[in-house]
Predict the structure.
Amino acid sequence: MRILSVNTHHPDKKYAPHFSSCVKIYNPKRVTNLDIFAKDRVRTTSGPFRQDHDWDNLLRYIFWNFEGERKVNISSLACADGSEPLSYALYLYDKTPKNYYAKFRITASDIDPEMVKVAKSGRINLSDEDFKNIEKYIKNPHRYFNDLDKPVKITNNIDSDRYSYKIDSDVHSLIQFKKSDILTEVKKLTPEEFYVLNIKNVFPYLKENYINEVLEIMAKKLKSGSIFVYGKFDLLVPNFKNRLLDLGFFEPKQSECFIQKI
Ligand SMILES: C[S@@+](CC[C@H](N)C(=O)[O-])C[C@H]1O[C@@H](n2cnc3c(N)ncnc32)[C@H](O)[C@@H]1O
């Protein structure tokens, strides 16, 4: 069956992703817990293998960087419907043997309980365009997505006109999801352990003092060699990259939206 792509109109012309597994928009003033963190209307837009980076390049760097390490945490904060941790899990599962990918512990969280429920459900809404994106990295991705059904319901989902799929349970079980906010999670980082810390495409929604606190704590807690992965949208925050460089990160030559702790 051919699945029609959904042509979403994004009023924010500066940032218009043309793929997405979910697009929920909410106003923080009507969501009490977000009101203290968020300054603007928040979108949950996400999608597997989002085009912030070439995922082959990113994962190759991660494999090279952590070669010889026995345990690496991949932590995806503000993960929306789970598309982002799913991209890591699928890549690892598809391309590496179990005794290799077992060293990566993938955890994911979001502040929005509805998003966490969707992410935990093991189903995901995908369009034709999402599949094209996944196919760039995973051959024949339909092997991992079956049981086509009506879309997973997401309140105010402006892309509701699509289908949902059951994610291969071996892949989905590699990820542990929970509801939490970014600041709480960065405070809990273990300084003795290595991380690939993903906080992508969320900073422009957040209040300045919240951003500062997150970046400062993260810089203090991340062990030298750990990697911080951000999104293209985050570069809309003034001086985003320079702030990270000032806080003790460097940009590897191969870097596309990731930076490393010195
Ligand atoms: C645009 S989505 C980004 C999803 C994913 N990281 C990606 O790049 O595809 C932004 C997500 O951030 C979440 N969010 C907003 N403020 C947050 C906070 N303070 N802590 C955790 N999640 C937050 C929203 O609920 C939403 O799911």
Summary: Residues 34, 37-38, 42-46, 50, 77-80, 83-84, 110-112, 115, 181-182, 200-202, 205, 231 surround S-adenosylmethionine (CB under 6 Å). Residues 208-221 form the longest helix (14 residues). The radius of gyration is 17 Å. The mean pLDDT is 90.
